[in-house]
Amino acid sequence: MSHLDPEVAALLAMGEQPSDADRRHLDACADCRAEVDSFGRAVLAGRASGAGEPLLTPPDRVWESIRSELSLSTPMLDDGGQDDADSAPASVGASRGSRSHLASRRRRVSRRPVFFVLAGAAVAVVAIVAGVWASGGIVPKADVISEARLDGLPGWSGAGGEALLERVDGHDRVVIDLAASVPDDGYREVWLLTADASDLVSLGTLDGSTGTFDVPDAVDLSRFTVVDISQEDVDGDPGHSGDSIVRGTLSPP
């Protein structure tokens, strides 16, 4: 039993109404129903992933993946709308059956509307872009606003690190990279301090040696310019322990 053309399945996934023959085939063929459902999930994922958000320009590797998926290294159709096999002359020894096969193939190509090909391409684009988006391949650009070298404080000889203040989509975040030998007990906490250490704001717990922390919108970064990482005990006290591992002042790069 022949199956639906993939371009037809793509159109059906995007909401095109099937012909009576296609509907009868879908009722009888589980494989084709599965293919239409697969295309449909890709379309839904693509539409949902960008809902209410500004469109972003995909990186070049996305288009490379699309071209590779669709084999677009050469034009899909030549100037006459026929492939090379149709435009090449029949060999001297070709049989009448071979010429009949070419004629039949030419009729099939000419009857296939170009929008079938474009519909298949559209579904492939949606699927690839949705997959890249879901895996984090398409992300807003981060601008580095300031940075700080983190130096070890007394009692933490050899400790160091780096902090970056980044702005992404109008929101600020601090990216931490800590290099220090720390005990297994307790935990590390990241803080923003004023220059005279008279006020401080906790950004959260550092799990491991690296982490990214959102800065609350209410925090005035013109005042809170110092990054501090402290060693904390599990004692229920939310305040700073007074045991700072590293500290550094943010300044423009």
UniProtKB/TrEMBL annotation:
Provide the leader sequence positions.
Answer: none
Key words of the record: Membrane, Transmembrane, Transmembrane helix
Segments spanning the bilayer are: 114-134
What's the domain of life for this entry? Bacteria
Domain Anti-sigma K factor RskA C-terminal: from-to ranges = 118-242
| Entry GO CC | plasma membrane
Kindly name one Pfam family recorded for this protein.
Answer: RskA_C
- According to the record, the residues making up region (Disordered) are 73-105, 232-253
The protein depicted here goes by the name Anti-sigma factor
